[in-house]
Amino acid sequence: MKKSPLALALLTAAVATGCAVDNSNNAPFDLTILHINDHHSHLESSSQKLKLAGKSTYAEVGGYPALVSALDQRTNANDNVLKLHAGDAISGTLYYALFKGEADAAMMNHACFDAFALGNHEFDDGDAGLAQFLDWLNEGNCNTEVLAANVIPEQGVSALAQNSANDYFKPYTVKQYGGQKIGIVGIDIANKTMNSSNPDESTQFLDEVETAQKYIDELVSQGINNIVLLTHYQYSNDLQLAEALTDVDVIVGGDSHTLLGDFAEVGLKSDGPYPTLMKNKDGDTVCVAQAWQYTQILGELSVSFDGNGKVASCNGTPHLLIGQEFKRKDENGKKQVLVGAELAEVIADVKAQPNLVQVKPDEATAETLSVFSQKLDVLKDQEIAQSSELLCYDRVPGQQKHKGADGCDAQTNLHGSQVADLVAQAFLAETKRADVAIQNGGGARANITQGAFTVAGATKVLPFNNTMVNLTMTGAQVKKVINEAVDKAYLEYVDNSAEGSDGAYPYSAGIRYDVDFNKPAGQRVHNFEVKAKGDGTWSKLADDRELVVVTNNYIAGGKDGYLTFGEISGDKSKYEDTLKLYTETFIDYVRGLTESGQKIQPVSEEDRSTQTFTPKR
To answer: Where does the signal peptide begin and end (predicted)?
Structure first.
């Protein structure tokens, strides 16, 4: 890394006089922070719909090979570079489901972050799972500092603290640039990690604000007055954090997957300026930044310190990493790769926009990723569970679209999708906060055959990139949304209306009900009973009972007739996207069955959500 002329002059003077270098940060200093957050095991590039050259275009964006190229490019273009990852590296794709962080660690060891803050998803497989991931991370040559000031694993109990609480991570680190020192403090989101992830019960999560101030004060007492907080704490919380603290200069955050900066030209809506400038408790400037998600954005933050521990200026660019391939839909709605004049026009538009950068993948990173992708293809076909019998997936009870096909008949289809019911049971079992689960029949796309069940089988059952969402609802709202879904299914199944969707038909766990298509709209589902987590028996669902409902993010957004879900999702206090891939959740569930000596089998009639109904045909 290059040293500034001022830093070199200070070092020369120190050597000449035989004095120690002055580390009191009493000279102006420029720092470039390159940062990402929430890559969530999204290691490959993805497709993002953008407006380019005036038309809707599907662009290849992100991916670790592109990210590493961009990091190298921006590091070489700047002096005094600090590379940060603000947490949630793992959980979210099959790369985590199958490699449990090994592939993520390998990618991060190409990026070589200076510091990495723990996020809530780092604890999805408990303290032991996190320790294994960090072991893989430590196998590289990067010496990435792992930070979490407010996480205290119990010494001698947690796999993270067999010798001391700092075996795997520490509260802060200090980075030195010539005569200048930068303190970096890590903060994890406490309640969310405890309530939505799976840390050991003995691991403590301390108050974010109090802990941040404690270690800021400790750094200042050492003469280090340029302070960066590396937080996994959400953008809105970071803004409040900035105002609550003294002596903080920069907050680089994650968790909320917030897009900052002006991307209106390409059709993306951001949640604020990049960076967002706040005032701390002292009245001094605090520079707040976040870099969206999935390695699609590399944040480049330029901070000038005035020499007295304050920010003199702060600006920067969130770089949207654009790949080499672009597609547009043809007259038949099929995506076609752009070539010739259209491609040249799009590339010219990319080059003209300061927030967009077209990068070629780093070859070494791409080679490592290829090793894991090839292993993934092999592992997809390996058995992860046994199914005791055939489970059928017809969307609506009695529908019998697959009557006689693959062994599914009128009897197996009597109560609808055995597969969707099982998926709902898996969601409820694997999601810590939820009381009940709801899954749309159209989201479960394949039978589960008797015998060996593989990851490939799981991806056929749940083929989309949907994630798990928790919604806080009243009993009355739950009753309403289930009726909405049944009414949507009725329109296609009974009325053959183009406005309907038989895939909307709801399946669930922890809640059951009767359906009668002969009743009027809004009243077709009745006799609701609930056995939420912690309930010993089934009981009538009261309208005023509060429940946490886990579902997939597609219907959580109000799609497929689930209108009340969409309304609830508009209230951020009642909506939590766990960002965990629903296929990954299902794989974890069936693996758990195997580990406990069980097989996949149909949900019991007592626990099935749909009991009886009279179809009107």
So the answer is: 1-20
